[in-house]
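Support request from a user on the community tier.

User writes: "When I paste my structure tokens into the form, the page sometimes reloads and wipes my input. The last time it worked, I copied everything first. Here is what I submitted, just in case something in the input itself triggers the reload:"
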């Protein structure tokens, strides 16, 4: 375990907090569960705190890598246990039909967006953990494949 100086620790903590929305979005998209994303961020923070980051020039990229690796471990464990976690929206609504009805009803648009999100998570669940990471980072966060 690496003990860092107060200055390095404060720098890391400040960067982690500044990047928290981005890191949470990556974790949530990879895992499909807000609760698991929170757990992944907590685990990533514990790992980051123990690491020597004095030579890291791009803390945001490094933290994204740590979160991604934690998520990969969780996905592999989930696949081994054959578990599926999805934040599924409440299905107790009556759908309207027609483009005019959808355009006129913001609540319906929000429900439709939730349905598409769940469908995307189902598709992502068919990918291997490495393929899932590549898809999410490239298509949802515009990270070039060469960087992945």
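"...and here is what came back when it finally went through:"
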């Amino acid at each position: 375990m690496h003990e860092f100086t107060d200055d390095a620790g404060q720098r890391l903590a400040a960067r982690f907090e500044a990047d928290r929305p981005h890191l949470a979005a990556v974790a949530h998209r990879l895992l499909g569960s807000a609760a698991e994303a929170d757990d992944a961020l907590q685990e990533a923070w514990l790992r980051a705190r123990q690491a020597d980051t004095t030579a890291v020039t791009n803390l945001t990229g490094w933290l994204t890598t740590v979160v991604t690796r934690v998520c990969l471990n969780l996905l592999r464990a989930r696949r081994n246990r054959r578990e599926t976690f999805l934040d599924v929206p409440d299905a107790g609504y009556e759908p309207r039909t027609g483009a005019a009805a959808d355009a006129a009803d913001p609540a319906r648009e929000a429900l439709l967006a939730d349905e598409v999100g769940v469908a995307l998570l189902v598709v992502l669940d068919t990918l291997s953990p490495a393929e899932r990471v590549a898809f999410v980072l490239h298509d949802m966060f515009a990270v070039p494949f060469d960087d992945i």
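Agent notes: The reload is a front-end session timeout and is unrelated to the input. The longest helix spans residues 6-31. The chain has a mean pLDDT of 77. Escalated to web team.
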